[in-house]
Amino acid sequence: MPRDNKTALIQKIAKQAYTTFRGLQSSANGDVKVVEDKLNGLISLVTAVRASDVKIAPRKTNSSSGAAELQSPPVTYMHICETEVFSMGVFLLRSGASIPLHDHPGMNGMLKVLYGKVNVRCFDKLEQNLAVTTVPPVFDPPVPPLQMTSVWRAVLRSVVEYSENSGPCLLTPVRDNLHQIYAVDGPAAFLDILAPPYNSDDGRDCHYYKVLQSALEDETDAKGHQEQQGEKGKEEEVWLLEIPQPEDFWCGGESYPGPAVSV
Predict the structure, then answer these.
(1) Domains of the chain by range and CATH?
(2) Rounded to whole angstroms, what are the CA distances from 73 to 11, 76, 221, 253?
(3) pTM of this structure
(4) Is the pLDDT of residue 196 over 60?
(5) Which of 24, 39, 215, 227 would give a disulfide with 159, using CB separation of 3.0 to 4.6 Å?
């Protein structure tokens, strides 16, 4: 077979991500137009990536529901690369799995589906925390008084389904920064780019949340109403409670089988 000297697409994405987000970090003293052009270039590259570019294939849904499957993680992660500027890897979700609602403090990000379909619900906080002058509704079930400092006003920005033919889902420090991701109709995988990476020492730790329901709402009807509103592009105010990592969610690790990446 003839030797392929072309640069792998995933390598091009890594280099473009590094230059894009390094420029974004210093954009206050740089040319904003240049940064926008680099970001558009990155979006174009990420839009083109497919599962074959990272040497993975769609996984079959396991028909068995034995103890082994119950003990395996609902989500696994393939680490590709990480620098002080960005991190990149692949998340793989089992059929029916979800990544709970979580945030990305001070971070930009891109999510690009490689196979399957995912439903992404995007939120943003409306203020730093529950202000003393803000009177929240009565929640059902009630929120203990000591937890009220962990309640946040927020807005549901959108509810969108993505497939491998979709462009990337984007997040910024101020827009669509919180999201919840569901695998739809089978297993799914997506490329994930975060800039800068999570780092608790720098105040970028991952926090989890759940959407609270008021005593006047029925949970099922409320969720359906939120999705309907999100799909129409209408934003809806909600209340979030910061919670520990859910017990039924954990993320395993897998070896990355794709082309080597260096930045």
Answers:
(1) 70-219+233-252 (2.60.120.10)
(2) 28, 7, 30, 9
(3) 0.86
(4) yes
(5) 227
